[in-house]
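Sat 14:20. Reprocessing the chain from the morning session after the first attempt stalled halfway. Input below, unchanged.
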Amino acid sequence: MIVKNPHRPHQPNALPLLNIAVVGHTNTGKTSLIRTMLRSTEFGVIEDAAGTTRHVEQATIAADNEPILNLYDTPGLEDSRALFAHIKKLQTKLKPLTPAQILEHFITHVSVNDPLEQEAKVIRQVLRSDILLYIIDVREPFLEKYRLELDILTQSAKPIIPVFNFIAEHNQELAKWRQHLAGYHMHATLEFDTVAFTFEAEKRLYQKIQTLVESHYTPLQKLIDFRAKLWNQLCLSGAKRVTELIVNVACYRETKSTQHNLIAHSLIEDRLHDFVRKAEQHCLNDLLSIFNFSDKDVAIQKIPVSNGHWQLDIFAPGILKAYGLDVGSAAAKGAAAGAGIDLMVGGMSLGAASALGAIAGAGWSTFKRYGDEIKATVKGTQWQCADEATVQILYLRQKHLLKKLMHRGHAAQDALHVDKADSEKLPDNWKKLTSTLRQNPAWQEPSVARNNNPQYQEIEAKLVGALLDEG
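Finished this time. Tokens:
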């Protein structure tokens, strides 16, 4: 949460806010880290060009509207060699001063338009902060410039937490960085990938800060608990939204006459396809909103969506194969509804005689439950529904998208591919779940009756749990 001009209510002996400087070389992901921690793409500017951040920028993170800490995004140390040489000269000149005092002397005597003005901004914020997060792009080798940066930063006498960024598929490079940092007695490192985000990494970051500034242990614990609760609610909201999509589509019906009318049947199929497409698009936009990715961010993040539409349509040729489904029919050709009767009479045909036989053998309660289907069957009416393949693809694609969003940092710039999800699995008893939904078209829209129905609640819980891989 970003809080502008934060003011903590006056309390006796209230702690000042914890100040954390995010430092490091240019293009290592300093702004990216803060964006990810804030769950916002609005903070700062991220570009491939070096030196994008030119000034110190501040953001405040709060727990339940109580400001806890300030994050300071600093410019990159662009010329660590010149800075190191300058500080060496000052050390020779000002021998009685401590290393931290020499840094103070440097920032108070640097002139406007000085070649080291940029570095002075960083050092000034370092000296005004309680903790330093030193961001490292592990893909880079441990060059001299990094050694010089660490020499300079350690002179501030501030606790430093090295944060390894861009760690995915770079285990060897990560191990080498750990070895180099051990030479500086820095063992309390952290893996925090700002692109491949995990909440556990964020939690561990706050916990490491706790160990270094014990005076702020209690407010930091409040922040950890608050962020964990918020994150769980976020993921639950996403899973419930996907579940609502599956229910909405599985329960949807289009009335269809059994008379042979190709034009009418084609129009019905078009309406069904249109309904499914729009339902999925609305779900996608809601998921982006839940995880704080706006329409503007869709273009920036290069998610394969244009004007609210998936670039790879759910009914596109080959979509079944992309999802690992070996199904003979293309998606959404429809299941003759009356599925409830079909199940009720043990899979017999839906002819009028079978339906009438079911009435005679099942009694009034069954007629009340399946009356519409029975009467429609007698009259020669069927329903066009989204077929099993369509509902499966919807579930698999949305589950894949949900996972991507849950593990996507707000600084990610690469394309988010969600067109292939053959690694995802369907919930247990999937066909039983979808069959029950098809038998209950009244569940298509939310209602008190639906939401309080024990059978619906069980289906919702199973779908949500499977989406979040619970149990």
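The chain has two domains: 18-212, 236-335+385-467.
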